[in-house]
Every structure is written in structure tokens, then in C-alpha cells.
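Hi support team,

I've been running sequence recovery on a batch of backbones for a student project. Most finish fine, but this one hangs at about 90% for roughly twenty minutes before it completes. I'm not sure whether the input is malformed or the queue is just slow. I've pasted the C-alpha cells below so you can try to reproduce it. Let me know if you need the job ID as well.

Thanks,
M.K.
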């Protein structure tokens, strides 16, 4: 296989609480490849969201990335100053957050969130062209009344709508890597199918995708490669076929036995 687009080695992220240290990630190795979907599966609290935030340099106190390297195009993101990291976010690596309400600014209009993504994408469009692209992307994630939504503020929209706007931002980013943290949880099945189709399309365009989901059906349907994480450690990895057909670890077998996902 080609060289990975993103190569993570020995990543360790700890939270220093008053009475103890939580080792949310402890020596994690992961490779993402262009044009492949890599799923990260694991129970609640296993470290999946901490992984995505660590990659983007968004871990806040009392947390800290204490060790490791994250190579993107031979540049170690952990060594980059915040100013350069800001350029990586959005332009090189886009993140669909698990909690859209925390990551959309409630008092910035939806269209201005999308303009910002388009500005960072390296392919900025002229205003009118951009608006028609935004309408197209919003309808592809199952939203109607797209002009009205563009003029809305996130605080005026439901959680499900905000989640779809986060996904639309991820689709618009044209980044080399897209991290999607539970992009379809709590959405209806039709919308979920529409979003998964868009992710497949991005994969076919050559983007490397890290897909975090509790839904084993989604992993089976979408992923090329699978990593299983438990308590901050990768316990198993392989192609989706290998992991689903012949899991090696007890933990993975337990996950796969649960019919309704992980929790
Ligand atoms: N800000 C924080 N302060 C202290 N501990 C934290 C913080 N953020 C995460 N953790 C801890 O790090 C561990 C991993 O959390 P993480 O959010 O990555 O889990 P997850 O795998 O995304 O779970 P879920 O499937 O529920 O989203 C947990 O033990 C969690 O309590
Ligand atoms: Mg999470």
C-alpha cells in the first residue's frame, strides 16, 4: 500500500485531574490512507474523541498530549506552533465533531460558518457561486429550505440540523484528511444513508477518512480498515474483513457480539 497520509505513533494524551491522572490515550499507533475509510471502534470512554481532538491540537487543560508523533505529509503536527496548526485545521484536516452544538458558534450565521470553511479550503469561490454550492451541500445532507438555513443562526436550529451542518462543513473542506466523530448518531435512517453516501464519495475522491462510530453496521458497510480501541490502547487492527470475520481479541469478540452496537 502507499504511504499513509496521516501516521500516528505512540500518541499519549493524559488528563491531570486533582486526585488522579486519566490516561485517555496511551501509546496509540494509527495509519490513515488516502482513499480509504478507517473506522475507530470502542466503547464509551475508550478514547475516540480524545483521539480526534489530539490530532487537531484541540486538547485543553487539564489535558495534554504528552508523547508521540502525528505525521501529516512528513510534518509532525505535534511540533507545530499554534499559528501553523490553525492553518492545518480545515485546510488539511477537517473534523466533524461529536457535539455540534459545542463547535458551531451560536451567534454566527450558518452561511458565515460555511464561508469560513470555503475560505480555508484553498479553493475559495466568489460569493454567488459559493452560496449555490452551500445550498447543494446542505441539500445533500438532507436539509430543506436551504436559503433560510444559510441565513439562520445555529441557536435557532435543532441539534440534528446543527449536526448536519457540521457534516456539510466537513464535506466542503476539501481537506486531505477528514475525521468524522459519530457523524450520523441520532439522525434518522434516511439522513444517515445520505451522509454515508457523501462520505463514500469523499473516499472515492481520495480523501483519507477516520470514521468514529458506535454503529457496527456502519463500520461493516463503510470501512476499509478497522482499529479497535479500549481504555486508551489499540487492542486490534486489520482490514474490515479480518476484524469482523476473524477477531483475535476477546474485547473485539465482545464488541461484535453486541447486536445493538457498543454501549
Ligand atoms: N476534559 C476532560 N477532562 C477529564 N477527562 C477527560 C476529558 N475528556 C475526556 N476525558 C476522559 O478521557 C477518556 C476518553 O474519553 P473520550 O471522550 O475520548 O471517549 P469516547 O471514546 O469518545 O467515548 P464516547 O463513545 O462516549 O464518545 C474518558 O475516560 C474521559 O473521561
Ligand atoms: Mg466520543
Amino acid at each position: 500500500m502507499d504511504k499513509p497520509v496521516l501516521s500516528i505513533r505512540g500518541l499519549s494524551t493524559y488528563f491531570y485531574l486533582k486526585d488522579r491522572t486519566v490516561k485517555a490515550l496511551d501509546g496509540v499507533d494509527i495509519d490513515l490512507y488516502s482513499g480509504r475509510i478507517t473506522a475507530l471502534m470502542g466503547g464509551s470512554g475508550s478514547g475516540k474523541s480524545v483521539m480526534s481532538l489530539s490530532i487537531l491540537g484541540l486538547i485543553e487543560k487539564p489535558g495534554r498530549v504528552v508523547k508521540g508523533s502525528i505525521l501529516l505529509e512528513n510534518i509532525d503536527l505535534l511540533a507545530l506552533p499554534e499559528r501553523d496548526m490553525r492553518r492545518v485545521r480545515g485546510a488539511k484536516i477537517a473534523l466533524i465533531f461529536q457535539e455540534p452544538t459545542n463547535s458551531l458558534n451560536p451567534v454566527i450565521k450558518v452561511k458565515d460558518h460555511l464561508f469560513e470553511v470555503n475560505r480555508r479550503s484553498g479553493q475559495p469561490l466568489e460569493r454567488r457561486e459559493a452560496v449555490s454550492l452551500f445550498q447543494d451541500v446542505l441539500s445533500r445532507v438532507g436539509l430543506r429550505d436551504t436559503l433560510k438555513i444559510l441565513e439562520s443562526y445555529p441557536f435557532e436550529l435543532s441539534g440534528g440540523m446543527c449536526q448536519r451542518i457540521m457534516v456539510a462543513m466537513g464535506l466542503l473542506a476539501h481537506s486531505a484528511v477528514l475525521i468524522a466523530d459519530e457523524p450520523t448518531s441520532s439522525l434518522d435512517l434516511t439522513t444517515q444513508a445520505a451522509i454515508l453516501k457523501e462520505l463514500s464519495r469523499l473516499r472515492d475522491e481520495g480523501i483519507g477518512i477516520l470514521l468514529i462510530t458506535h454503529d457496527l453496521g456502519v463500520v461493516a458497510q463503510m470501512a476499509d480498515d478497522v482499529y479497535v480501541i479500549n481504555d486508551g490502547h489499540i487492542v486490534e487492527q486489520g482490514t474490515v474483513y479480518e476484524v469482523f470475520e476473524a477477531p483475535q481479541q476477546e474485547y473485539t469478540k465482545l464488541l461484535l457480539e453486541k447486536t445493538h452496537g457498543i454501549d
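--
Follow-up from support: It reproduced on our side and the slowdown came from queue contention, not your input. DSSP finds eleven helices and ten strands in the chain. No action needed from you.
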